[in-house]
Specification:
It is a single chain. The protein is globular. The protein is built from five helices and seven strands; from the N terminus they run βαβαβαβαβαββ. The chain starts with a strand and ends with a strand. The longest helix has 14 residues.
Length: about 140
């Protein structure tokens, strides 16, 4: 399964941990410079945005939806979120995995379950990060 990992804010340490989790599950990880370019090149079936500081990811969602080649790409958001899950789903995200203070591993577990369900449908997942450093995972 291909996976593009990236984060919406400077919390790169969370991506390192998530990258390790995904690599242990058999995903191959590499670095890309631009989320949209990486998605166009890799042709993923899903884009997952990650945040540590509550960034909404709506700007990335809008750019993906506006791109003729990526407009139908499912977009998933995970992390410490300022908006409610319901609000983010209403904005157009296909799924949302909030990190709860009482259960910080819950979002990762939910994302892993989501990826497992999607991989049975041959889905490719992506996590977005600022333009400086993107990570692309391939099977």
């Amino acid at each position: 399964m291909k996976v593009v990992l990236s984060g919406l804010d400077a919390g790169a340490w969370s991506l390192v941990a998530l990258r390790v989790v995904l690599e242990r599950e058999g995903h191959e990880v590499s670095v890309a410079a631009d989320v949209l370019k990486a998605c166009r090149r890799e042709r993923p079936d899903c884009l997952v945005l990650s945040t540590v500081r509550g960034a909404s990811g709506v700007d990335v969602l809008r750019r993906v939806r506006a791109d003729p080649g990526l407009g139908e790409l499912p977009v998933v958001l995970g992390g410490r979120l300022r908006n409610t899950r319901a609000d983010l789903l209403a904005l157009g995200f296909d799924d949302v995995f909030p990190v709860a203070a009482a259960d910080p591993g819950g979002a990762v577990a939910a994302l892993r379950a989501y990826l497992a369900r999607q991989s049975r449908r041959s889905t490719i997942v992506a996590l977005a990060r600022p333009p400086a450093s993107h990570i692309v995972c391939r099977p």
